[in-house]
Amino acid sequence: MRTNAATANSTHTLRLLLVLALQTALFVALPSTVHAQTSELVQKSLLRVCADPANLPFSSEDRTGFENKIADLIGEKLNVPVVYEWFPQATGFVRQTLAAKKCDIIMGYAQGHELVQNTNHYYRSAYVMLHRRDGKLAGIKSLDDKRLRSSRIGVIAGTPPATVLALNALLGNVEPYPLVVDRRHESPAERMVKDLKSGKIDVALLWGPIGGHLAHRSGGDIAVVPLVNETKGPRMAYRITFGVRRGEIEWKRKLNELIKQNQVAINKIMLDFGVPILDERDKLITQ
User: Fold this and answer.
1) I want to staple 36 with a disulfide (CB 3.0 to 4.6 A). Which of 22, 78, 237, 250 is the partner?
2) What pLDDT was estimated at residue 34?
3) What's the rounded Cα separation, in Å, for the pair 233 and 127?
């Protein structure tokens, strides 16, 4: 998130959501003399990305996350190589990367966060419930379902679903997993899904891109239910943008243009990772 990346496993969020450090600079020969059309503060000959080196499915040092793939797409359209400023997505991430002018874009940032200027959103997702397709929660739609009273519920501590569980007097059913960990050594989300498959818990509550990706990798035995039918508590769906420095209006406009022109390709990258993406009516986008 990155989720709101405190919320989004980013953005946020968790992004929310969202995790850890190692620094590598990747320099590639320029494919041509064409430069990105940006403000004077932005490097014109490179797409310099601020990212966490150990935060799959979002980003990783081997560039296999979906945000890495989207960065590659944007770099291709700008006709410039992509390089990274690696830093753990924890306290100080923006200050040590984007604000320090070591890079020019954060690929996933929850809309409305005051530390950055947001572009238009390039996807919208929500927290999800994961459950075994052959388990007792088939057909569940929300955290109001009475069957949860007799279920063991996995949730990342401090995330929006945990608030709803408290409002529904379900904290006694919770199996908590930590929000802040060193992702180089531990993945609470992967452990949660492992516990779901083993039967230790009956349902797992995760930020959509994380939960959807892990379910996608499971071979189809885990159902993914976006939390878009809740009747109480904080919002569960978030718009995710590119984050840029404040005042860089030309750069923001250029990125908005690229999002609009390449939305279908961006969607395909995320759908290939199993990310549940939603339209503004909370309907799943499938292509």
Assistant:
1) 78
2) 37
3) 13
